[in-house]
Structures are given as C-alpha cells and as structure tokens.
Amino acid sequence: MPIIIPANSAAAGLGYQVTNSLRFDGATNSDDCLIKTFGSGGDRRKWTYSVWFKMSGRGQGNNNALLIAGTSGQSEGNIKVAPDKIDWSEYNVSTGGNTGRLVTLQLLRDYSSWYHLVCVWDTANSTAGDRMIMYLNGSRITSLSTDTYPPINTDSQINNNGIVHNIARQSWNNSGEFNGYMSEICFIDGQALAPTSFGEFDEDSGIWKPKDDLADDLTFGDTGFYLEFKQSGTGTNSSGMGADTSGEDNHWAVNNLTAVNQTTDTCTNNFATLNLLNSTLNNTALSEGNLRMIGGNQSVNYSYITSTIAVLSGKWYWEVKAVDNSEIDQVGVAKTDLAQFSNIATSSGLQATTYGGKGVQMSNGYKVGDGSGSAYMGGFSANDICMVALDLDNTKITFGRNGQWANGSGSANQTYGNSTAAFTNLTAGALYAAALCMRDSAGNNPGTMEFNFGNPIFTGTDQADGNSYGSFEYAPPTGFLSLCTINLSKEIS
User: Fold this and answer.
1) Whole-angstrom Cα distance, residue 39 to residue 57?
2) pLDDT of 168-204, one tens digit each?
3) How far, in Å, CA of 71 to CA of 349, rounded?
4) Is pLDDT at 45 greater than 70 in this prediction?
5) In this model, does residue 474 exceed pLDDT 50?
6) How far apart are CA 20 and CA 242, in angstroms?
7) Which H or E element spans position 490?
8) Which residue ranges form the domains of the chain, and what is each CATH number?
C-alpha cells in the first residue's frame, strides 16, 4: 500500500495548536489507562463525549477502548473501535442485552491520521433515532450496521456514580487496551451538543480541526471534564497527567503512564510514526505508538517498514535507537513509489537494500544500497542512537552516531559540516520515507529498534528543531526539521 500522507492532521493555517496528547501502548498489554469513579452521579439521560484519537493498530483483543463504564457483573457503557468499526453500546446486566447500540459500517484503518469522535446520549429526546448520535470528523454517522436505540429516559452507565470509568481500557477484564494516541478529551454533563462545540472546518483547507478556548466557552457540568494532558507527573490531583482543566476538578488517576507517554503528537501537529500499512509486519511487531519495532517471527526472511510521512524536498532529521544489536538491521530511506523494498546478498556477505532503499547497517556501520555495501562509520552497540539527516534539496543522506557524524572511512567523529554523506545520488523529485529493514531468519537475533521523529519514546530528549518542534537526543543540524505536519506546511508554503 502506498505511503499515507495524513489527511486530518494538517496544520490548518497554523491557528490554534493543541499542545499535548497521551500515548497508550495497547499493543503490549501494558495496562496503560486513566481511571475515575465519580462520587456523585451526573445526568445519566443526557451527556456528550468528545475525543480526538490516532490509532496505531488494533488494541488488545482487537478492541481500542475509548471510554468504558462498568466492571464484571455490572451493566456497562462501552465506546470503542472494535476491531475497525466504532462500536458504542449500553449493556443491561439484568436483561442480558443492549438497551442501545450503534456500530458503524465505516472502517477506521488509517493509522496515520487523527480522528475526532463525538457521542451524544439524549434519551429524553422524543425521537428515538436521536437518542444516540455519533459524529466523526464533524459529520453525523448515518451508515450503521447496528442501530438499536434505547427506550425513552433510559439511564446510562456512563456518568453513573460509584461505577469505575476507564479511558483506554475495558474495566471489567483489564483488556481492550487502546493502541495509539488521544488528545482533547471532553465530557459534558447534562447537555446534548453538536460537534461544532468542539471543532470546525478550516476555511482554507476544509480540514476538520479543534476549536480554541473550550475551557472558557463550554459549561461542563458537575461530572464534566476536559483532559488536555498539559501537566506532567502522576496522581489524581491537578498536577497529574490526568488533570481536569475544565475547572470542575474531576481529575483522573493514571495507571502505568509516565512522562514519556505525554507527547506533542497531536491533532494539529501530526508526527510521523512507522506505517503498519506499508510493511511486511504483523500488528504485534510494533508497539509504543508505532515507534518501537521488534523483528523476528514474521512470515518473510526480511521484514521492512516505512514511515507514515514521506517528503520530496527539504531537509529532515530523525533518530533511531538500537535497543539491542541485531545481526542485520538497516536504517535509512526508501522510495514510496515502489510497492516494497527488499534485500539481496552482496559479494561481501552483506544484505543491501534495493528498489530505491539506501541506508546504514547497524551491525557494522556499512552504507548499503542499490545492491552494494562499503565501510562508512563503524557499527552500533546496544542503546546507541543513529542520527539520520535527509537533505533532499541536495539529494543526499548522512548518518551519525551518538552526537557525532560519519567521516566516511569507518568512524563517526565529525560535526555535520565536516561529515561525509553516505549517498549523494538520491532521485530528485522522488518521494522518500524513513525506512527500516530487519532480518527475521530463525536463529538470528531479531533486534529491537526505537524511532524518534520528534515524538520520543526514550527519555533524555530535549533538543528541538530549528522551528522549535520535536524533541531529540541530539540537536538537528542547522536547517533540518522533524517530520511533522506543521513543518510540512511550512515547507510547502
């Protein structure tokens, strides 16, 4: 499948910018979630839930839980993507059936873009078909495979006091963990609101985008909350990542979340990740918001993957951490106009990327591409960081290690200005994406690689690019930018 340029994540005129999101690692059963039990109940017949999310694949049990209320043996309210459809239900334990349930026909399989979902529960409404309403990216969802509407004045479990509520996990069996990113989570107690209360279409691009000043413009109600993930730390008070910034003080406890889960990859500035839809991988090989890849156990001898964002001009920087030293892992770029890139053996016993792929081999630091390999910078040890500088304005790519750039003859001991490019013959005007190729043969160390496109999963990163976006272990060379939609919009303009 061709590379996906994120569609619902453009900078949209560089107006209001969402600061943070929270990354949940539902791919590894990490039990990342937010937890809240309300001491007093809100309006169980009328409320509105709004959330922006970017999925990294299917969550635990093929369920990406968004908001769940209830535990084992209880009635439950359940908003999730399962596995590729939005599935919202209210289950009554007494009858053993759903009092209301909506399931979309539309499939959500874009793991590169942000979605905005609004769910409106209004069982006091005299029109049965308006008692449960879902909106996706500003438009009402009318194509449904299941449309069971609740009887009038039905109480929901969501917004019920004494009932545990979870964001990003099913509370009754600690499963269904969300795999991806969430931001701008709003809950409105006692009102049935339209999506225009939370977002709007950009006048120039037509892209649905979040609105500013929600805390000032909205009345949240007694059990309402607004989660912006601005705070760092843990706990249930206003200094935690689960802090409610609506003014209602309905803070959420965090579970298995640390500062590294707080990210600047948001619905207004979408960062690149690894692209599950352009790879030979299965869903289980990726984790941490599609920034960590573990080789091995694949159906092919060599696995590959590219990034969700591709570029055809400009200067771009990212980092790759060699968590362990694989036998043969290659970091670099590949052309996106090709169905895939693969590997062939060279006379020296190396495996070199073909089909437009060019990179550096982690085990020995050789530069590899176009069916050949040669000495370049020396090999990588466990936890070394490979620096990648892609200069498409000058059709070259350069690699470094741990803050020093390659000298071209076997060492990394130079500043970028004095470094030697690995390749100077990239194709002008071609779309290039970040790429990784890993050996999966039985008996070989499969390796683990962590990518940082400016939204890191490893700690200690604090170096931004020249536009003040992203966070890297080492400062990008002058003029080089992180792969995110704001920088793309600046490059295009």
Assistant:
1) 34
2) 998 766 678 899 999 999 999 999 999 999 999 999 8
3) 56
4) yes
5) yes
6) 12
7) helix 485-492
8) 12-263 (2.60.120.200), 274-492 (2.60.120.920)
Q: Using CA atoms, how far apart are residues 336 and 110, in angstroms rounded to an integer?
A: 17
Check: CB of residue 433 under 8 Å from CB of residue 404: no
CA geometry: angle at 130 spanning 126 and 132, to 5°?
120
Q: CA torsion angle for 158, 223, 20, 218 (degrees, to 10)?
A: 110
Two structure tokens written together for 298: 């694949």
Please state, as a whole number, how many other Cβ atoms lie within 10 Å of the Cβ of residue 356.
19
What mean pLDDT is predicted for residues 247-266? 92
pLDDT(347) > 50: no
Return d(Cα 116, Cα 51) in angstroms, integer: 6
In this structure, are residues 390 and 424 in contact, taking their beta carbons and an 8 Å threshold? no
Task: Compute the distance between CA of residue 480 and CA of residue 396 in angstroms, rounded to an integer.
Answer: 13
CB neighbours (10 Å) of residue 238?
A: 12
Lowest mean pLDDT among 208-212, 339-343, 485-489: 339-343
Please answer whether residues 276 and 293 qualify as being in contact, where contact means their C-beta atoms are separated by less than 8 angstroms.
no
Token representation of residue 194: 């339209």
Rounded Cα distance, 356 and 478, in Å: 27
Rounded Cα gap, residues 219 and 109, in angstroms: 34
| Residue from 307, 266, 282, 281 nearest 62 by CA | 282
Q: pTM value?
A: 0.92
Secondary structure letter of residue 472 according to DSSP: B
Q: Which residue has the tokens 């790429």?
A: 435
* DSSP β-ladder status, 21-25 and 179-189: antiparallel
Six token digits for residue 420? 């030697």
Q: 324 near 446, Cβ under 8 Å?
A: no
**Structure token digits, residue 449:** 């690689």
Vertex 110, ends 290 and 147: CA angle to 5°? 125
Q: How far apart are CA 424 and CA 399, in angstroms?
A: 12
